[in-house]
Amino acid sequence: MSTTDFLHEAKSRGFIHQSTDEAALTARLKQGPLPGYIGFDATADSLHVGSLVQIMLLRLLQRTGNKPVVLMGGGTTKVGDPSFRDEARPLLDEARIEANKAGIRKVFDSFLQFGDGPTDAVMLDNAEWLDALLYIPFLRDIGKHFSVNRMLTMESVKQRLDREQNLSFLEFNYMLLQAYDFLELSRRHGVALQMGGSDQWGNIVMGADLIRRVTGAEAHVVTTPLITTASGAKMGKTAQGAVWLDAAKVAPYDYWQFWRNAEDADVGRFLALFTDLPMAEVARLAALSGAEVNDAKKVLATEATALLHGRDAAVAAAETARRTFEEGVTAETLPTHLAALPAGVVDLLAAAKLVASKGEARRLIAQNGVRLNDVAVTDPAAQVTPGDLRDGAAKLSLGKKKHLLVRAG
């Protein structure tokens, strides 16, 4: 693919929610590799699946012959982004921020090729310029370009104020710092494109405006849609917690299972966003119906896992799933229980007499001793739903030796 394919590919795969002048961006892409960046604050020692759409967009930028710039928020993490938050983030000390940055860097090594070439990714840190700011000169040179009236209309600010929840002056400065990042990256590295989530639109546009006011250079903006599951759940969050992009937090097998358990209605969209498969193949898999949807889910799981953990780990996870689940499904000795779904896990275990009482089932759940389709059940109110059926059955397990197939009936 060539540099000019970026915008077309991003649109066809569902990455673009809003953008500034697309004709101007296309013209710039024709000139050769375009440096584009996304910022990531170091609030944890890893990223989770909720950040994956941004990572994949940077990957697509590189795959189309452009230059991805990963901006670590070593400086802005000290302030905290107030966007669509009910309260301020806890402030982290320098040592914690440095440790978090190191953990996040490992995630990007799986998705991007770093180096010194024209299309190699680079990782920068806004602490390089933010830590050195002289506050009064900054306000005189940069602050004069920002209207408080306009800042107060930003949804991220307006919602907090409308709910009468405190917004500190420290947080209020965040949008100035984010805009200043774009200006510094433009000056230092020729970055002409900032990308981010749709909730960042106002902040990013302010950065593009600042560049035009201060230097007159071109600046482009692309934002991605908020990614939720078909049932409306936030991407990357499960009953078991966040799905981290770190094998020490979420093993490759569990990561594979997360994608394998995608809702039917999400498969085509997730294949487009979270794999490198050609769109023709994505369309073919998305068109599968009935039991064949499970085949598409396995492809999604294997391709997504291969990007993060490597092809060998993905294939091993798929094979482990096949042995532990599919072979179990066909085993004549595995007990089967028919139930009207949805049905509570506790009720099913008691009805099938895998436990002596519902109280025992709850205790086992509290001890992480119950699994649904090989994923730990942590909520005693959890249910088996039709969406949990794999090849017509869902597998409930107690430890390693007691298994029950639940079928709708």
From TrEMBL:
Positions occupied by motif 'HIGH' region: 42-51
Binding site for ATP: 237
A GO MF term: ATP binding
Residues where L-tyrosine binds: 37, 174, 178
Gene for this chain: tyrS
Originating species: Falsiroseomonas bella
DNA-binding found in the keyword field: no
Catalysed reaction equations from the record: tRNA(Tyr) + L-tyrosine + ATP = L-tyrosyl-tRNA(Tyr) + AMP + diphosphate + H(+)
Designated name of the protein: Tyrosine--tRNA ligase
Taxonomic classification: Bacteria, Pseudomonadati, Pseudomonadota, Alphaproteobacteria, Acetobacterales
Short motif ('KMSKS' region): ranges: 234-238
